[in-house]
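Input set for joint prediction.
Command: fold jointly, output tokens.
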Amino acid sequence: MTGIFGVSIQGLFGQLLVGLLNGSFYAILSLGLAIIFGLLNIINFAHGAQYMMGAFLAWIGMRYLGVNYWWALLLSPLLVGAFGMLLERGMLKKLYKLDHLYGLLLTFGLALIIEGLFRYRFGISGESYPVTELLAGGKNLGFMFLPKYRVWVVAASLVVCFGTWFVIERTKLGSYLRAGTENPQLLQAFGVNVPLMITLTYGYGVALAAFAGVLAAPIFNVNPVMGSNLIIVVFAVVVVGGMGSIMGSIVTGIGLGLIEGIVKSGMIANLLSSAFDSVPVAGSIVYPIKLLLSPEASAVTIFVIMAIVLLVRPAGLFGRER
Amino acid sequence: MPPLKMNAVAWGLLVVAGLAAPFLVYPVFAMKILCLALFACAFNLLLGYTGLLSFGHAAFLGTAGYVTGHTVKVLGFQPEIGILAGTATAAALGYVIGSLAIRRSGIYFAMITLALAQMVYFMSLQMPFTGGEDGLQGVPRGKLFGMIDLLHPLYMYYFVFAIFLPGFWVIYRTIHSPFGQVLKAIRENEPRAISLGYDVEKYKLTAFVLSAALSGLAGATKTLVFQLASLTDVHWHMSGEVVLMTLLGGMGTVFGPIVGAIVVVSLQNYGANIGEWVIVITGTIFVICVLAFRRGIVGELAILFKR
Amino acid sequence: MKRKLLSALICAALMIHVGATAGAATKVSDGVVKIGVLTDMSGTYSDLAGHGSLVAVQMAVADFIAKEKPDFKIEVISADHQNKGDIAAIKAREWIDTEKVDVIVDLVTTSTALAVMKVAKEKDRITLVSGAASTPITNEQCTDTNVHWTYDTYALAVGTGKAVVKQGGKTWFFLTADYAFGKSLEKNTSDVVLKEGGKVLGHVLHPFPAQDFSSFLLQAQSSGAQVIGLANAGNDTINAIKQAAEFGITPKQSLAGLLMFITDVHSLGLRATQGMYLTTGFYWDMNDETRAFSKRFDWDNRHKPTMVQAGDYSATYHYLKAVKAAGTDDTKAVMAKMKATPINDFFAKNGKIRVDGRMVHDMYLAQVKKPEESKYAWDYYHIRQVIPADQAFMPLSESVCPLVKK
Amino acid sequence: MGSEYLLETHSLSKEFRGFVAVNDVSLRVKRGSIHALIGPNGAGKTTVFNLITKFLPPTSGKIFFDGIDITREKPAQTARRGVIRSFQISAVFPHLTVLENVRIGLQRSLGTSFHFWKSEKTLDVLNDRAMELLEAVDLASFAFVTTVELPYGRKRALEIATTLAMDPELMLLDEPTQGMGHEDVGRIVELIRKVSANRTVLMVEHNLSVVATLSDTITVMQRGSILAEGPYIEVSKNPQVLEAYVGTADE
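tokens >
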């Protein structure tokens, strides 16, 4: 087998491809968080719970109402987005003048409530959502089997991510949004209904989470904790990308997926082993680093990256210094 | 009532309640409250008095627990040596994490502490001496100074109380010290504190290490109480719990975190039957605290008494 | 993961006073036999244990009273240990000190089981572990006041491993959760695979818990192994199975779930799990006895009992019988009686309790049905083979429990 | 004693991502003078302040205080040399009492600021000096009030008292009269005049009448560069300055 450090070229290719698939999930979730942070200055801890709601609504629709996947893809984000707008109007709104800390704590509490209610109703084991007929199966690329559904996930999330980026960075509506982050009073003076804009923005960010949830439903087990498993990682993506930076969150999300793929392949750990293990002292010095970059540590990879990025570039890769 | 008098009354209540507690409630339960109250007070030193929200404080609680457990169980030292070792390790870890984290402030500070604590969690899962998922079980309480058998619940309780009181006193004194004045100034207006010639990073780091050490003291003691060190104490949920205790009791109040710890631990203990609702109720408390009750229990009471 | 951050509000301890009029014979300390059900009511394991475990224990008590007409009172209390060792330990201590609890049942997750076993040993009370799975419970950490009732990782690994190798699955690759439990599951299984003449091609450790398994599955796939052993549990297992189907890994390579419950199969559906082999201590649809039990168990028409819950019933009943037979609730006497009496009920066949606390009984090798074979709700397994009690568990000769005299 | 100029900057520049906020500014502040920095919004005045007090690192150029190169120092270090600034928005510690605010300025001299084991009562020795300073800014009667409850103008006065507590050689005042009513302005102007005795003051100020009454020298900045420098009479006649201010000096 030809390969680098115990991983075949094909194997690496497969890992990168899979990494891209995961990356697009991170991207779409962190994009929602970034939009919300940009305008509301709130870290939306409930994002994971809202993602879970999206997936569950799709499942409920299918199970009880006969709503198919495509309708779910449309309806679930709309419903969850509307729910988000209610939260914004009812609760978040009262916190804008306070320390950012309170927004974080409130949404943290909301996440617990939502998750608890779903747990109570649906139990912990979760439910299974089948892949829609049209996207079932896959294609054998020789080095790996590529499920059609994952290709669809990548395509759909890239379209949504870059569409959102385009609207925010290149249109008049987007320019209002950006102005709103800089100087809401001035924008209000120009006759823009800023509170409404904030509500809609939060709704959109939340709807993005739900959209990701519906995309995820056929891949992952739909269960009440699926979001809280993911949310801290996505947080880290937003921080690395630069809080509130749209492009930063997209690029970092995808990039992290790719890096995770490489770490999970075990290539880096193997490389460090082959380079240092025979050297007596260096081997034991490198050991903890190797541990942090081994496949089983892939869940920590993002935090290592985050610590490094924050020390070198405090505002994140794409963030602006203020 | 003037604040000073109020503090004296609170101290009196604290000592009396602390001495009487094992005769009123189940001693182990009271010990758990003391440990977590000390933890919350140490955390409050940062959040309430320096304005730093650490989302990774479980790392200090848990690491100290493991080190103490290992020192006592495997290396066979006496309990007081174990506690010292745990506290010292937490302080050292606090120095490392603190030096990295205090370079940034606000939400970034919270995120860095969370990230570094996640790494500590991962290490705890991996290192052979922690027992991984099963934890470090059956840590002996041993004999204090080789004489007093700590297996006796009352002896153990008063030993814990004898750790809590000075620990809490250090926090109280720190808050009301020249150093505490500077911390408050940093919390209130950091750039101004800099422009008055204070190296705020050094002050923040000192406060961070102090807070980490005292959290470690709490974790070390907790390990002896339960004879167990487990992943629970390094998990980020524990970091969230300590935020809740502080917020609920009243951040930036001296006695608030103690009240918060009593409420939260009681809920945990006596509410053990509610099952799924546990999470919903916890979430609801968070929401209510943030929306309507930001001063916390002690903060609101203080306002009430002032009127 | 966010099992629960904290805990709960005011509780009314759930107690059922199902007493009988006092006779004379049985000497029960403080007049009542108190059973504490300590389990995960809200977290990851609340479906396979949780409230259902409490229901099962209550059924056992009710049946015992109806059938055996005891001359002592029995009470059941329960609590949520939230999968935290310290909460479990404090609850156990408090129960024993203030509630005078005589026996603690269920104990899902190894860390809580070990913590409570220590407390019970110190206070001379009995623990009946049904939920937790790790082998240290009856090995290096064994106590003489504990019975490990339902299953353990060794039994599952051996049962499944042996059967799969015999079916022709000679080459294995393991997907292992990166913590003590996952690693011991992998080790137990690979030992069996090697002993049966199979080969282990490699393994990959994954973080615990994990969501996306595609990277790890690709590695398993490229190993070319016939069988991919899943040395993990719960949601990790579920997601791995689901994604293996998605990536076309199954049915070309087959999966062996080393710790799977019927609740997992239920949530995955038969399409993703069909054909898988798994070892279980109990299946609700095995015979009239089990069906009768399961029908009564189903308190809200949504649940069938898992092996953990059925084991709770069996253990509780056996314990109460021993109390009656011994004429006392003294721990030493009851333990002696329990160990002396063989167990044969709807759950356990050919059961007996060994000196290390292991209750050995027949285990079953099940294969998951194809979707078209399933006729009604929860109709999931073919029972392919009975694994006799003396072969199902780790032999005493291999046990490192200090109670075992060699 | 050092040179005639207490503070000098040599070709100071600061760029933010391609945008030049401060361009080649060489400033000389005479010892014992009141020196005003004026200019339209966005001229770079506050950035110059931030550079001098080390809150921002310069892209190029050097800063000398009392003849010593302080370009690479940390902000707190520079502050300890006696360069004390105020901020555009009032820089007080809102939830400390008025007395405590001033004491924060005084307490560093005790050398016990890291002593977390000492009682804060050890700070009481500073109370007399603190009261003197409060007296000087007419705040003695507010000593035990929580600062957040003071009216705006009083907060600026408190800020100056705290600054004085540091016994600064060079005071940097960033828009000391911003957002004040007419009466308050008058009081602050008097205060600045009073405290500037034996000190050097560099201030950014928009209110030209304040500048005219107080300052010895004026530096006018525009788009990051120095446009003109000299006494008020001279500068106010400079055609370039007039041009820069017409239409923009309407505040």
